[in-house]
Amino acid sequence: MMELIRLTKAYKGVPAVRDVFLIVREDEYLTLLGPSGSGKTTLLRLLSGLEKPDAGQIHLNGEDVTYRPPHLRGLGIVQQNYALFPHMSVEDNVAFGLRYRLIDPVTDEGEVKRRVAETLELVGLTGFEARMVGQISGGQKQRVSLARTLVTRPKICLLDEPLGALDANLRERMTVELRKIRETLGVTFLHVTGNETEALAMGDRMVVLDKGSIVQADRPDVIFSMPSDVRVARFVNTYNVLEGAVRDGEFQSAGQAMTLPEYARGSEAGFYAIRQDAVEINAAGTVPGPGRTGLQATYIASEFLGSRFAYIFRMPNGGVFEVERHLSHSDPVTYKGGEACSLSWNLSDALVFDPSGAALETTVFKGAA
Amino acid sequence: MDGAAVDTRLASAAPSRDGSGFFRRHGHLLLLAPGVIWMVLFLIVPLAMMVYVSFWTQTTFAIKPDLTLKSWATFFASETYFGALLRTLRIWLTVLLLTFLFGYPTALYIGQFVRNKTVQTILLVACVIPFWTSFLIRVLAWRPMLGKEGAINIVLQGLGIIDHPIEVLLFTELSVIIGMVQIYVVFMVGPVAFMLARIDDSLFEAARDLGASPMTIFRKITFPLSLPGVVVGAIFVSVMVLGEFATASALSGRKVNLLGNIIVTQVGSLKWAFAAVIGVVLTVVMATVITALLRVVNLRREL
């Protein structure tokens, strides 16, 4: 329904968005993950019309809207800082778009009131109509901001880090509620975030952005288990990524040699990634069994994360290697600081990327496991 | 709540430095005392005195503390004096309106269209440049500008736009208004520009995104949010214009008499009782104007 074609934008010569091609579908929850400075907010502002691109096109339902001003686009943006009008009550804030939009404003006050009440109910703020914006909490402001956009029934609702300013508890609740609200309305949500957990949990589809370009766009589970690029593996934040090169048929990194999985043998490899929860910790010197490989590392510290433990190791070259162990699978083990350990994993769990960072072709076929 | 608990504990645990319980409990009143004493001595007492004196009996060369309504009766019965009140109000309203009409767009430009903070500051300072010379020079400079053989008339005649010099330019109510607007417009620009510059850009973006046209955004967002600035500016301008006398006497050739001018003449001829009457009237007018302006917005909430 919305197509971005080779969209490009630079600020003072520094490219913020480069050659972005993306199709936003009807009735989907699309998350856009990128580290800060990856151009995700710029992309959102281009879509909403608050910024003009240097090159490329934006098509909305087949129409070219690249240079159409925001108030004629029919999209809604929920800004990071909520941007509520401080001199108005909650009700007037939400009613703003209905009353004052240039195209097709709602002139019947009864109708405005009815729709505002309906939307406030949807976001769980019934009874807050008369409150001033200064009298409500951060989480409530967020909901008002969302309601203000949703009440106008935008074709696409753009959310700029909507959960960024909320505390952990509230964030978790809003995660569920945002999905529920979206499903009720059937409006496409485009949710920009720097938090990989949020992007994975909320999106029907997920786009990973780096340095202004799209690295991968796919279902979150596919992105999680089959990152197409070593940068994606890094953003997802659950992989140990080792840099190195193939020598004598083995991957050499940190002064150690690891066996390459079947599919990667004979190809040029530059990165080797293994999921943190796929690694087993053994006493130093343990030789990995058949179909497994591993490396030696020094234990530094562990971190208790509620349902799981993270063990942090140092590799001989100084790099950090993390191992995660779920308490439901095994009891926590205590290691001594500075203790040498042997880490091993199944070859089939390893991902290999070529020196440019792209995943090796065959990786694609092993995902389902 | 935790914070409060900690605070009390600290407060009670701290050894009392003041010694006596009275000072510990009422110490903060001591901080208030200098200000209160100052205000009572130099504001409340003189005000009360002025009201009191306005009822004294005035003879040609003396004033006696025998209470009478005579001065008050003279003020409201006399065409000259009551007329001066009406003229003061009329000129005040005109100047206020004009400072708003000239000041607001200027402030809008500085506060909204100039994005660079440094340039904003430079422009605001530029507005104050006339204040680098004395008040009297600023006012008197209008004479060679507006006079019968002044700059404006010479230029207009030179261009052949007019045959005879325009005489209403100087020594009329118009010249007083021109002079006052020029002097006081900056007091409107400052507060408004300040309020406008404080508005977060994301509010305008949100409004645009919600479908509002630039004009609607101005009416519903920009103007209401700048209103506290307008009110502060209006208070500045009102207080100064209502008490004005110098501009009026310098640019009207003493033809336009405001309440301020009458006070000056009355005090000059030692008519203290009558001057006090006008003083009281002026104070009441100013208090009413300020109260009314403060009703427009809740400044305490906005600033």
TrEMBL record, chain A:
GO terms for molecular function: ATP binding; ATP hydrolysis activity; transmembrane transporter activity. One of its GO terms (cellular component) is ATP-binding cassette (ABC) transporter complex. SUPFAM superfamilies: MOP-like, P-loop containing nucleoside triphosphate hydrolases. The keyword Transport applies. The keyword Transport applies. GO terms for biological process: quaternary ammonium group transport. It comes from the Bacteria. Residues 2-236 form the ABC transporter domain. Keywords: ATP-binding, Nucleotide-binding, Transport. Belongs to the ABC transporter superfamily. This is ABC transporter ATP-binding protein. It comes from Roseibium aggregatum. The lineage of its organism: Bacteria, Pseudomonadati, Pseudomonadota, Alphaproteobacteria, Hyphomicrobiales.
Automatic annotation (TrEMBL), chain B:
This is ABC transporter permease. It is a multi-pass membrane protein. PROSITE patterns: ABC_TM1. InterPro entries: MetI-like, MetI-like_sf. Belongs to the binding-protein-dependent transport system permease family. CysTW subfamily. The chain crosses the membrane at residues 29-55, 91-110, 122-141, 174-197, 225-252, 272-297. One of its GO terms (cellular component) is plasma membrane. The keyword Nucleotide-binding does not apply. Keywords: Cell membrane, Membrane, Transmembrane, Transmembrane helix, Transport. Residues 85-295 form the ABC transmembrane type-1 domain. The lineage of its organism: Bacteria, Pseudomonadati, Pseudomonadota, Alphaproteobacteria, Hyphomicrobiales. Coiled coil: none annotated. One of its GO terms (biological process) is transmembrane transport. Pfam families: BPD_transp_1. CDD domains: TM_PBP2. It is found in: Cell membrane.
